[in-house]
Amino acid sequence: MRLAEKWQGSWRWMGGLDYGRTQPCRVQGEWVDVIRIGRGEPLVVVPGLAGSWKLVWPLARELARHFEIFLPTLRGDHGNCPILGQGLGQVGDIGESAEELASLTRHLGLREPTILGLSYGGAIALELAAQHSKCLGGLILYGAEARFHRTLGSSIARRVLERFPLPSDNRFVNQFFHLLYGTKPEPGPLVDFVAERIWETDQSVIAERLAQLESFDVSDRLWQIDTPTLVLGGSRDVIVPAARQRALAQEISNARFEMIEDAGHIGFLTHRAKVVRSICRHLQQVKAAV
Questions:
Q1: Does any domain span residue 123?
Q2: Domain limits for position 155
Q3: 223 DSSP 8-state letter
Q4: Is 61 within a domain?
């Protein structure tokens, strides 16, 4: 009972999820589901490696108080829409995903939208900005970098995911998700929520996306990005350390870096109020400068 009372305020939305408006869009001959929530200026949120848009739903709910949020389905995220259950098929490379995102924003009639890319979604957003900078009104990144730094751990993780079916309810396996927090998380509904959403993405899709990240590199094209950019980094991010995210901001003209103290790679969940404040402040400054 004490645990439930402690988490009741910040995670009240878990009692009944309202997924907003669902809009099917035709992109390159296939249907893509887009979740829409909120009112105001458009903000397209590109989800990360696993968990689809459902993992970022708590952040989307907070942002929807200030913006109209668009949550697209990425390639490989089958069956994650509660209404249509459709989505683009086989996982493509990051360049293809960026082009599909550009086509999607045009289909939705979004003129110079702001793109918020989270982790793997940040790579897609960076590729999109490098290709179509003039078509964006703003770029916001969390947990992203210009070139993926392959490690022994990431290589082992990809090979395990490719070759061995893993149980989604195994505590030993799920404890590796603690790396996403930057520190051992306190037991509670957030920990369960993250694990459940991640395992909704097929592990072969996660492995393929890791493989795509291994060849991702826009470091020699950052000069092409000419849009107001905010790079957010968690001070405890062990997946993409804050120093590398700060370096990314330094390589993009008209960009700035902001640290989210005590946050890890999923600080957009654990510290979402701070993240939302930073995003709102940034976009207010961008609007005032126009």
A1: yes
A2: 18-289
A3: G
A4: yes
